[in-house]
Design a protein that fits this description.
This protein is mainly β. The chain has strands at about 10-20, 20-30, 35-40, 60. The protein has a four-stranded antiparallel beta sheet with strand order 1-2-3-4, with no helix packed on it. A hairpin with a 3-residue loop joins strand 1 and strand 2.
Length: about 70
């Protein structure tokens, strides 16, 4: 998450639950006045056995990640 350009992300109040990773939190993305609600998610405190997803963000809803 440290490499994300934070000027484009805002924490969302949306959450979902995964049976083996735990509770996911979401970001809303905003680029050039276009908002993409809940287009990225992460697990702030992954469950035991899913620690590999800690500090990682997943994207969907048409998001393209570029370096």
């Amino acid at each position: 998450m440290a490499s994300m350009a934070r000027e484009y992300v805002r924490e969302s109040t949306h959450h979902t639950m995964c049976g083996w990773k735990g509770q996911a939190s979401y970001f809303t993305l905003r680029v050039a006045d276009i908002e993409n609600p809940n287009a990225a998610w992460f697990y702030p405190t992954p469950m035991k056995g899913a620690e590999a997803v800690a500090d990682r963000v997943a994207f969907w809803k048409g998001v393209t990640v570029v370096p």
